[in-house]
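ESCALATION

Customer reports they have been waiting on this structure for their group meeting. Please prioritize. Original submission:
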Amino acid sequence: MRRRPDLDVAQLRGNVDTRLSRLAHGDFDAIILAMAGLKRLGKLDGLNLLELDEREFVPSGGQGALALEALTDDILCGVDEIEAAVAALNDSRSLAEATAERAFLATIGASCVSPVGVKGHARDESLSLRTLLFSSDGSRSLADEISLPLAIAAERTELIRVATAIGAALGHRMIDRGARELIDHE
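Update from on-call: job pushed to the front of the queue and completed.
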């Protein structure tokens, strides 16, 4: 709405096939889907695609992050083995990014329906976090970005502590600029 107020925007629910079917049947002129999902499902053929600029279309926090849970009372496998197997799958960069994104959302009091995007990007020895926050009609928006040092190779607890602090720092900056007022009016 902010970029193209001339468009008629409507909600679209359902799985990818349902959404693509509604597009093919003319219910929509265009739809927005995650490119990663289309690639993973092999749904790219025959589509007229336009990749959205991540600086203008910041995704919701935690997009693409996976969480694993395991029962620890399995007779065949002990707690140490389970923790070691799960730890081997952990990606420190993804953990830092998702942790900072979640801390930002918690700090500003966002819910799953708040019109806010936040994207972390960990590289080298820093973590950048960008956000866009909107009023529901798109007439008002706030944007900001922060980049602070983060030792990706740090011990897990320290990595989480610093990533949380980075997300909270951006959240407090956005609160000072009126983020809660936008969210409270949604």
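Sent to customer with the following note: Strands lie at 116-123, 126-134, 141-149.
Escalation resolved.
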